[in-house]
Write the structure tokens for this entry.
Amino acid sequence: MGKMGAERITPMSKQEAAQILGVDVDTLEQKDFDFEQVQSHFERMFTQNDPEKGGSFYIQSKIYFARDLLEKELVKSGALTQDKASQFRRAAEKITAQKTETTTEATEKQ
């Protein structure tokens, strides 16, 4: 028997990540898949789910991890180069950093 309270967390699947970001999972398997579609959906959805604008931190987190998982899967399959992945990652980090700065400023005003 396992320890009480020690539950195993199931990682997000590629199918779930694609569904969250509104991307057809079958197109992810294609070598000519354009990750900009994922990035575009990520940016729009991450911003729309900003908790300060009535969104959900939980949903925003799922969106972030979905983008991250798809990026890693596409690099692993060769559909996305490491250089291009780094560019997309920096863009995602910039969006999340802007969110953090906004939250910090709002907290300091209180």
In short: The chain is about 65% helix and 0% strand. The first helix runs from residue 14 to 20. The mean pLDDT is 80.
